[in-house]
Write a structure and sequence with these properties.
The complex is a heterodimer of chains A (81) and B (137). Chain A is α+β, with helices and mostly antiparallel strands. Chain A has two helices and four strands; from the N terminus they run βαβαββ. Chain B contains six helices and five strands. Classes of the chains: A alpha+beta (81), B alpha/beta (137).
């Protein structure tokens, strides 16, 4: 195991999924997870850029980082409660 | 009540797949954001929720051009019935079939998909629709 490997509880590759699919996939994962779990969502859906932060703010979970890629974005999320 | 938490009331009239998909996206979005969703099925939307043909091809709205029809047909989104199912799983989403429309088409609740919670009249729908906007699709 390398030290650079990200320790995500779950990585969700939602590329190709239409809005609001990536958000729904994230919600499903968070609902089944434990407090403190970290998730990575990779989405090519432009709606995710607004939807995932909006839902996290409403549901009071943490958006750790957004990393822009080529034609997609990676959202790093922590289940806060 | 916080306006952000107001009930979303959707009146579904059209039974075409594109309009039902647009409605389902609104419903699942509202449910994800914690808003109650109150859906009233009238006319052709009731027929689209028939258990024996809910996933059949219900066509597209008349304004769809030939080029747009081809685009919609190949889009990778989930079926609207699946989005409604997820909306109900996520939050407080109730789907009511209009009693008048049911009678018009000779339908009983048993003819409809289990997504439909009950058959009710317009006054009952309105009594649940006081806390937010009503959107007609």
């Amino acid at each position: 195991m390398t030290l650079t490997a990200p320790a995500f509880t779950k990585s969700i590759d939602a590329r190709g999924m239409a809005c609001p699919g990536p958000l729904l996939a994230l919600i499903g994962a968070i609902r089944q997870g434990q407090v403190g779990d970290e998730y990575e969502v990779i989405s090519s859906d432009a709606g995710s850029r607004t939807d995932i932060p909006a839902w996290l703010a409403k549901a009071k979970h943490e958006l750790v980082a957004v990393v822009e890629g080529d034609g997609f974005a990676r959202f790093i999320v922590r289940k806060a409660h | 009540m916080d306006d952000l938490d107001a009930t979303l009331s959707l009146v579904l009239f059209s039974g075409t797949d594109d309009r039902l998909s647009a409605a389902a996206v609104l419903a699942v979005g509202a449910a994800a954001m914690g808003r109650p969703v109150n859906v009233f099925l009238q006319y052709y939307a009731v027929d689209a929720f028939r258990a024996d043909r809910i996933v059949a091809d219900h066509g597209l709205a008349p304004e769809a051009t030939a080029a747009q029809r081809a685009i919609v047909a190949t889009h990778p989104g989930q079926h609207w019935s699946e989005l409604f199912r997820q909306a109900k799983d996520l939050g407080d989403v109730r789907v009511h079939a209009c009693a008048l429309s049911m009678e018009m088409f000779g339908l009983k609740q048993g003819d409809l998909d289990p997504l439909v919670d009950d058959v009710e009249g317009v006054a009952a729908f309105m009594s649940d629709a006081t806390a937010g906007p009503i959107t007609f699709i």
